[in-house]
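Lecture 7, part 2: worked example. A protein chain together with nicotinamide-adenine-dinucleotide.
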Amino acid sequence: MKRFIVTGGYGFIGSNLTRLLLRKKYKVLNIDNMSYSAQKYNLRNIDKKNYLFKKTDINNKKEILKIFKSFKPDGIFNLAADTHVDRSIDDSFNFIRNNILGVYNLLEALKIYKNKIDSITKKSNSKKLNTELKSIKNRLNESINLNEKALKYFDDKN
Ligand SMILES: NC(=O)c1ccc[n+]([C@@H]2O[C@H](COP(=O)([O-])OP(=O)(O)OC[C@H]3O[C@@H](n4cnc5c(N)ncnc54)[C@H](O)[C@@H]3O)[C@@H](O)[C@H]2O)c1
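Predicted complex, written out as structure tokens:
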């Protein structure tokens, strides 16, 4: 069974994505810091069998890395963000912290996690384990590439 992390899973997009992934019989770990826009109601009545929740901030690198290592995701969807343009005009600090530094932090944790997998692969003699790790690594590389493309797009636009 594939395992996905959804950040901001109590938000509008994150909760709908979580529902979709659960419907497709994937395992989902929702990471949300329960800020002003988190709505527990968004995930009411979901089947909790394949669902986990961690109240964590995506800027908490140590905790994020711990979660990556224990959950071993196949992929990560980042929907954690400060939202609503009017709020960003009133006070942009949290937007920069969560939407820029938070993404950077997730990518950094992802790279450390991937390097850890690399070093286990090098030490391991198990063919089966190595094949599984290689496939996780490929999917993580895809995630990193996509996120880096998104950051570049943001950079080019500004
Ligand atoms: N809603 C839309 O129509 C729409 C359309 C296009 C793109 N998007 C993008 O999708 C993303 C999510 O949008 P949304 O409408 O679901 O937002 P939302 O405000 O409904 O939800 C954001 C969620 O992220 C969580 N969060 C915020 N900062 C966090 C942090 N540092 N660590 C962990 N969790 C954190 C919040 O608690 C909340 O649950 C945003 O990047 C938004 O720009 C949204």
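The mean pLDDT is 87. Strands lie at 3-7, 27-32, 51-55, 75-78. Keep this in mind for problem set question 3.
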